[in-house]
Amino acid sequence: MRNNSREGRRIGRRCVFSGARLSHPDGIALNAERLGVEGGLRLDDGFSAEGEVLLRGARVAGSLRFAQASLANPGRGALNAWLMEIGSGLRITPGFVANGEVFLDSTQVRGSVNLDGDLHLRGVEAASLKIGPRT
Predict the structure, then answer these.
(1) What is the mean pLDDT of residues 55-70?
(2) Is residue 5 part of a domain?
(3) What secondary structure does DSSP assign to the chain, as a single string?
(4) pLDDT at position 2, please?
């Protein structure tokens, strides 16, 4: 994929990158900044990105799913999802690997968050972390 920018675009139903292999070392492998998806966004089933996956400000009405996905941008941001809004749920399930920083600052998930399998958090910093029912 030569032009990997989806910045500010709107997609009906769902957006599926299952099995996609994107590479732009030291750059942005997938630019989906401010992307709007009426359904779910899938980055799974062998999805791999060498470079940053940029989802900053994206709005996904359905769920965001990472399963059997690999993100690599060592020493830099592997996933940048600042200010993202997820309507249905966030699913980070077995086989997800991020080699680089993962930014979820001010991300809102209105549904459930599923972190299934081994989750290793090093150097976690959070202004707030809420676990439990919405109030």
Answers:
(1) 95
(2) no
(3) ----B-TT-EESS-EE-TT-EEEEEEEEEEE-TT-EESS-EE--SS-EEEEEEE-TT-EESSEEEESS-EEEEEEEEEEE-TT-EESSEEEE-TT-EEEEEEE-TT-EESSEEEE-S-----S---S----SS--
(4) 41
> For residues 7 and 30, is the Cβ–Cβ distance under 8 A?
no
Q: Give dist(CA 28, CA 52) in Å, integer.
A: 5
- Using a cut of 0.85, tell me whether the model's pTM lies above it: no
Number of domains making up the chain: 1
Q: How far apart are CA 93 and CA 59, in angstroms?
A: 21
Is residue 128 predicted with pLDDT exceeding 70? no
Domain assignment of residue 127, yes or no: no
Q: What is the mean pLDDT of residues 32-45?
A: 95
Q: Average pLDDT, stretch 72-97? A: 91
Residue 129, CA distances (Å) to 35, 68, 103, 106 in order: 25, 25, 14, 10
Give the range of the structural domain holding residue 87, as residue numbers without chain letter.
10-115
